[in-house]
Structure formats: C-alpha cells, structure tokens
Amino acid sequence: MEPWPVDKQKLIGTVQTVYELHSFHTDLWLVVRESPDLRQLEPSAAMLVQRNEVDGIRLVRRSDYKDHEFVTTVTMVKRLRNGVQEVDPLARANPGRDASWCDKPEDLMGDIQRQMFRTFFIKFLDEKRLTPLEILNYEVHARVLDQAGTTVQGALQRLASVQVRGTKQTAVSRMKELMNIADNGLATLVKESKGNPPIKIGPGGLLEVVSAYKGLPEGLSRALYRAVAAHLADAKSWVEKLDRLFQLFTPDLSLREMRVLDSLAAEILASPLALKELAGQEKTRLELVLNAVDLYVGNLGSGQGEQPAGVKALSMLLSEGVLPRTLAELRLGLLRHLHSRLPLRSDRGIRDEMEATVEVITYLRQHAPTLARDEEVLEALAQRADRLIQPEAMSELIGPIRGAVTKAETVLSLAETAPGDAPKAKIATYLRSLIVPEDFIREVGNRMEAIKTLGTMARRIVMSGMPAAPKREMAEILDSAIFDSIRTEILANQAMPFADRILTIVRLCGGLPEGRARQLAADQLTQALKRPEFILNYLERFPGATERRDAYFKLCNAMLESGLVDKSLLPMG
Q1: Partner of 13 at 20 to 30 A CA spacing, among 104, 174, 453, 525?
Q2: What's the mean pLDDT in 391-408?
Q3: What is the mean pLDDT of residues 55-65?
Q4: Residue 440 phi/psi, 5° resolution?
Q5: From the CB of residue 288, how many other CB atoms can be counted at a distance below 10 Å?
Q6: Number of domains composing the chain
C-alpha cells in the first residue's frame, strides 16, 4: 500500500504545554496550581513538600490538544513522604472532586468519563465488541446495554463509590443521580432517533456524511459518531472493526473527522482483547510489553501475515503521530504493564528479570525514541528494577554461589545492568558487604596474581553508575589492597629482576582506576622508561634482530594498552 501524504499540523492542530503542581493526600492527588512556566512552580513545590498534611507532591507536564479538546499528562518529578505508597501510580489528579464527575448526559462524552465507562463496563464491552462512544451516540447499542440485566446498576454503584470520595455526599444519593443521568441519556437518544436514521456511509465516506447532515452545527460530531457506529455495527471482531474504521480515512479529511476516527480507535485499543487480536497471543509478559511498544510506533501485528487495508492505514497514522488520543491510550497501556508486579519473563530470579527490564529499555531506544525519553516510562522501569531488589531475591541469587570473587562479580553485574539510580543504590549495599580483598586474594591463591582480579573489580565498580559515596568507599578499599600488593609482592621482591618487576606491573596493573595504586604503578613505569638501560637489558634476552624488534614493539604496545604511561615517553611511541 502506498503511503498517503499526511499533513500533521492540520490533523493535530494547536497543542499548548502547561505545567501543574499536585499534592497527595492519603490516596488522592489534587491540583494545586498550574503555570506555563515550570520554574514558577518549583518554589511552591519545595515549600509544599515540607508541610505535614501533604503526603507527597508531583510536577506534571500537560499537553492541551486545543482542537481535539483532549489532554495528556506526563509526571516529571514525584516526591512521596517516607512510608507513603500510591495505590495507583497512574491516578489522575482531581480538581477538588473526582475528575470523572458528571451532572448531565452530555458530560458522559468527556474523555475521563468515557475512560471510567470503559473501566466499569469492561466485560460487557469486550463481549459485544463495543466502545463507550458507540453506546453513547447510537441508540441501538444503548438499548442493548440498558437491557443487560443488572450490568448498568452494578457498574454505577461502583462508580458512585469512587466519585463521592473526598465529598460529603453518600454513595446512595450519588447512585440515584447517575441512574437519572443514564435514563435521561437513553431517552434523549431514542427520541432523537425517531424518524431520523443514521446517515449511511457510502463511497464518499465521512465527508459525504458531513454534506448530508442538515441539523445544527453543534450536532454534527454526534451525527458522525452515530453514522460510524451504525457502519461498524455488524463487525465480528475488534480487528474487523478497526479495519472498517480506518478504511474511512482519506487524505482530505479535516481534523473534525480525524477526531472521530482517533477517539474510536483509542477506545478499541484500550481493550486487552483488541491488542491480542492485533498482536497475536503473547507467550510472556515481556512479549506483551514489546508488542505495546510496537503498537505505539505503528508496527501492528508484525509477523502475523498480510494486514487488512484499514489496519495498514491505522499503522501509518500511528507512525506519523497524528492520532493523539490513540497514542495516549497506548502509552497508558504500556505504563500499566510496566507498573504491574507480575514478572516480565519468568520466575527464574532477579537477574533474569533485571535483564528483561533492560531489554525493554534497549527496545524502546531502538524502536520508540520518544517513549525512551518519556520521564514517566523511565521512572516506571526504574521502579520495576528497584522492586526486584529484595533480601529474599538477593539471597536466592548469592546463596548458591561458593566463590567470594564470583559472588561479588555476580552482584556487580546486577548493579551494572540495573536501570536508574535507586536500584543501583540498593545493590551497592549488598555489594559493599562482599568487597573483602583478603577473601579474594585467598581464593586466587597468589597475592601478586590477585592484583589483576582486584583491579578489574575496582574498574568495574568505578564505571558501574552506582552512587558516588558507596562507589568511592569500595574503590578505596580495593585500591589500598592493590597498592600494598604492588609494593610488597612486586617492588620489594628482590628475587625478581628489575625488568621482570616492570613487566609484571604492565601485565597486572593495566587499566587500574584513579588512585594510589595506579599512581604507584605509573610512577614505576615512568622511572623505568627514563633509564636507557631498562629496554637495552630487556632486549638482550632475545637472540636475533628480528626477535628483538618484535619484542620491542610488543613491549611498547603493552605499555600503551596499560594506560599507565604517556605515549611520548616511549622511545618510538
């Protein structure tokens, strides 16, 4: 299929960035202030986090899609009081009362209200392959829900309990209000439909619906949703519904029609069942997460054979980034997967799970750079890694290992792999207890040969990304041990010729991190190179000119690779 030209600016419209300051109280986030400038909120955040009645604060970047009448948020900074935990790390902030609150049937068309609709009617919607928008705009589907036994009553009871939190209203009275809103909404749909069938979508597509519409301008969007709902009514699967929906896309659609396609696609792709139909059955949770990333970038159902034309169009539009609601829903789904406490790959242990977490990060960087820079996605991955590091899990990792060096290297590998500062800091506490140079030396069996083992470990610790204080402490412990071994086992070894002592330093001390040991080794090599007889005496060991030439260049290369001497000090460097 040839790609269509897409005018991104035309289809998305105006987007405005606003920053919000939220405060956390028990289990609710409240909006405190907003500003177009993040710097104006930072002093207030610093003061708010000190107040005893506040359990936490967060700074949020909000993107307002003005022409779509749609909002997305990304948490940039979050600070919770010690001991405080969120029930739902993705919970929205409320402007004084629950954001899903509604007073009349028209309010049900709001994004947050429809998300709650989806949450409380999820089983019914998936069984019938319906979305909230189709039910709210097409009387046929609304009647089906109304006749579904106690489904509506049960869902509204749960919604009422959620909405009255933080208010003085009872759940019972709120339930009555919600039932009245639902009844009025259905009655309005039925009344408007009498003698007024939905506009049939023909070869002219959505633009034909716009031309055929004769009502008030403010009713055009409802007419479009109603026409599309009727057009999709007999689709047997979510994929078939998506296919039909996006076969309605043509390059000449305006933002008004694109908003209809985008809103319906977002609600379809909020269904895990729809995602499975698109991506196939995942064998592990890791595959599910990677598929969620693929969906976000428009790589729908890769490896599942030829896709229908409408699904290809959806894929193209996602890759072009012109479906803001759908992209926001897919991002939210990915975050839910990342915050889940279920293992990504298996129950094979902490190392396997950490590697899977890193695999997700690598996949994001390669396939979805926008998500790889998303503060909330990165925080979710760091929290996942942080949760893995528990005493029981670390005992299972270290317990079966017998060697002191292997134990330390295993925990160090975990620190090198772990994403984010918090998990690295936790691992550092376990690693510190294993950094005992005498145990390593005893295990190697030779104090001089152990220098290389100690130096490799010190270098890895310095480069590990662990917090500066514990990293410095462990590096200094190893540095002191290496310094003493160089001094006593090499330099003070009078049984070893001078040239051999220098060669041993080159062989064992290459790549040492900054410290006393590295300085001592570097000083010894520098002094040796300043003594002309050192290289001459060394080369006398080799019988012929060719052997001496090869040995000379090999020595120069070894010294350069050690990183302990400057190139200018080598006679032919």
Answers
A1: 104
A2: 92
A3: 95
A4: -65, -45
A5: 21
A6: 3
Cα dihedral value 518, 522, 523, 525, nearest 10: 140
Q: Which of 99-103, 261-265, 327-331 has the lowest mean pLDDT?
A: 99-103
The whole-angstrom separation of Cα 461 and Cα 441 is 18
Paired strand residues for 71: 64
Residue 158's nearest CA partner among 144, 140, 171 is: 171
| Element housing 24 (H / E) | strand 15-25
Tell me which residue range forms the domain holding 342.
Answer: 100-367
Tally the C-alpha atoms within 13 A of residue 532's C-alpha that lie toward its C-beta. Answer: 0
Residue 383 has pLDDT above 50, yes or no: yes
Beta-sheet pairing, 70-80 with 15-25 = unpaired
Asked if the model's pLDDT at residue 346 lies above 80, the reply is: no
Q: Round to whole Å and give the CA distance between 307 and 287.
A: 20
**pLDDT higher than 50, residue 434:** yes
Q: Is residue 378 part of a domain?
A: no
pLDDT band of 282, cuts 50, 70, 90:
low
SS3 track for 181-228: HHHHHHHHHHHHHCCCCCCCCCCCHHHHHHHHCCCCHHHHHHHHHHHH
163 and 147, same domain (yes or no): yes
Distance CA 160, CA 175 (A): 5
Alpha-carbon span 108 to 114, nearest angstrom: 6
Q: Residue 172: is its pLDDT beyond 60?
A: yes
Q: Is residue 386 situated within a structural domain?
A: no
Average pLDDT value for residue range 179-190: 93
pLDDT at 409: 94
Task: Tell whether 271 and 228 lie within a shared domain.
Answer: yes
Boundary of a domain, candidates 96, 119, 141:
96
Q: Are residues 334 and 264 in the same domain?
A: yes
Residue 478, pLDDT score = 97
State both tokens at 398: 């270290």
Q: 62 and 187, same structural domain? A: no
Question: Do residues 369 and 297 lie in contact, with contact meaning Cβ atoms separated by under 8 Å?
Answer: no
Do both 261 and 212 map to the same domain?
yes
**Final residue belonging to a domain, choices 96, 113, 131:** 96
Task: Report how far residue 516's alpha carbon sits from residue 485's, in angstroms, rounded to the nearest whole number.
Answer: 12
